[in-house]
Amino acid sequence: MVESVLNIEGLKTYFFTEAGVVKAVDGISFNLKKGESLGLVGESGSGKTVTALSVLRIVPKPGRIIDGKVEYNGEDLLKKTEDEMRRIRGGEIAIIFQDPSSSLNPVYSIESQLSDVIRAHQNVSKDETREKVIEILTMVGLPEAETRINEYPHQFSGGMKQRVAIARALACEPTLLFADEPTTNLDVTIQAQVLDLLNDLKKKFGMSLVMITHDMGIIANMTTRVVVLYAGSVCEIARTHDLFAYPRHPYTEALLAAVPRLDMRKTLRVIPGNIPNLIEPPSGCRFHPRCDYATETCKKVIPVLEEVGPEHFVACHEWRNIRLKGEMTHSE
Amino acid sequence: MSSELVKLRNLIKYFPVYSRGVLFKKEVGVVHAVDNISFDIRRKETFGLVGESGCGKTTTARLILNLIEPTSGEVFFEDENVFEKFRSANKQEKLRLRRKMQLIFQNPYGSLDPRMTVFDIISEPFAIHKHVPKKEWKERVYKLLELVGLEEYHAERYPHEFSGGQRQRICIARALAVEPEFLIADEPVSSLDVSIRAQILNLLVDLQKRIGLTYLYISHDLSSVRQISHRVAVMYLGEIVELADTDELFKEPLHPYTDALIQAVPIPDPKTKRMKIILPGEVPSPINPPEGCRFRPRCPYAKECKEDTPKLVDVGGGHLVACHNVLAR
Description:
The structure holds two protein chains of two kinds.
Chain A (H helix, E strand, L loop, with lengths): L3 E14 L2 E14 L3 E5 L6 H8 L7 E10 L2 E2 L5 H7 L4 E4 L3 H4 L6 H12 L4 H14 L5 H4 L9 H13 L5 E5 L7 H18 L2 E6 L2 H7 L2 E6 L2 E7 H6 L4 H9 L37 H5 L5 E4 L2 E3 L18
Parallel strand pairs in A: 3-8, 3-9, 6-7, 7-8
Antiparallel strand pairs in A: 1-2, 1-4, 4-5, 9-10, 10-12, 11-12
Helix pairs in contact in A: 4-5, 5-7, 7-8
Chain B lengths: L3 E16 L6 E17 L3 E5 L6 H8 L7 E6 L2 E2 H6 L3 H10 E4 L13 H12 L7 H11 L16 H13 L5 E5 L7 H18 L2 E6 L2 H7 L2 E6 L2 E7 H6 L4 H9 L48 E2 L5 E2 L2 H5 L1
Parallel strand pairs in B: 3-8, 3-9, 6-7, 7-8
Antiparallel strand pairs in B: 1-2, 1-4, 4-5, 9-10, 10-12, 11-12
Helix pairs in contact in B: 4-5, 4-6, 5-6, 6-7
């Protein structure tokens, strides 16, 4: 039995806006094993980012975590004081954001942004900090780190900025890293470099990684287990291989069939309709208005996660009755 | 009638770069945005143009439509010289040409006027081109809405009431209002959600079948280009490095850049294990592009590629590639 680093149970994060209460994360549960690469996949508004922000307790106003448990190494982060949280953030749990241009501060040099993190968490001298900054920047593949640390973010290209952001996240050797769409703003050849780097660093530090993305290609290549989110709730949790070979939730299946592939031309399945409004989400199963298999029950009752195979969970009333792509057997 | 609808001949666009002087601006260099490209787009085909950011894809689109002045070169539309027509300053002629070529943009949030109803947005081209009598506007707008998969009652609404995918449908309806033959789609699905992208891509394919449109499909997303295009051109730093039929290009890429680009895209299937060439470095500045072959500094096969610029040559069956090493092989 591999121990869990992170165990999220019934997490609810709502945003109290003037237009109404946005249920961005509405009862999400999953766990993360030590050293694992877990994918968190979903479209915009599915609650991927808010889940990560909730774990770090940096949900922006008017958002609030209203219920649930976030256990990190057996301790509930939601019960920690703000001081204790500050030591965990950036020290043990770190996050890389999507857009490095806005997550780096434009008026501070690269060195001061990285040394801030190190000095906030470790008791080291100024010279040692500088050495550490250079070391970590060299490790993320920044050429001429000794001279470039005095430069400012605008002097870096997008790919290099993301490397700096990764270096900042890894400066204190965290045990858990959230990567929130880390390559969405980058060109494909640069994306390949950054993903490769993340994989190397993960092995080197023995980190657990939560990869947040909407790109099924990245999920297939970077993760071993996947959590599929839709409109603030979990539809399916499975090993990556199983998810692609035997998707059990109609949304997962439709999403896979809707993505064009580079290695073949196929008929693209259209998922009808739009992503639901989270102020008044659909009753029952949130996917039912767009689902081909929806029944009366789906309109009324919220489905819960059921175990359908080894490490494979699905929240669908109809999973026994519908046959999706592939066979109904499991890979061992 | 030739089978080519649009022809580009030695098209060049340089943007000057100025130094920040107190009194005088001094030109200190030029951005080689589009540097001597030529290709043909055949009638009723989808021609894909791919490349990374800053390689000149959008500049090419804007040049074809004469939205910006070229530095040199020609564009022919149905054998008419587009730039000459626009320079001739005959308003009727300009409008006639504009009606044949339309553009849809990447961001449907920025390309629709928030203060106009959908009806006003789609009927504005009728007011400009005067090709539809006013009493038929309503009927025509409804027809266009139906064509792009929207409902009649949507006509009275404003853009903010629609989702991204629906807005892109409105943009497509507006472009089709003038009954164009040629539509440039500049990253039409990049800002949309994954489950919505397929809707728009399928709509584009469907419209092509129904009304015989010709597309120039511009994107950095190779998977969608593969899905929708008949032929594809790959751009790198303002130049075309390879051009071929879609299936051939993706199965047997000849240019090392095309190869690396294809291998860099993660396939949504964990069973597909691929050899990975990860390109080192980044795209150099288009202000001082490398001498000789522009891809040379990042190319794993580069030898004596510095001396002269490789030309785009046909290696058989309409497969064009600009690489010294392919010819040597």
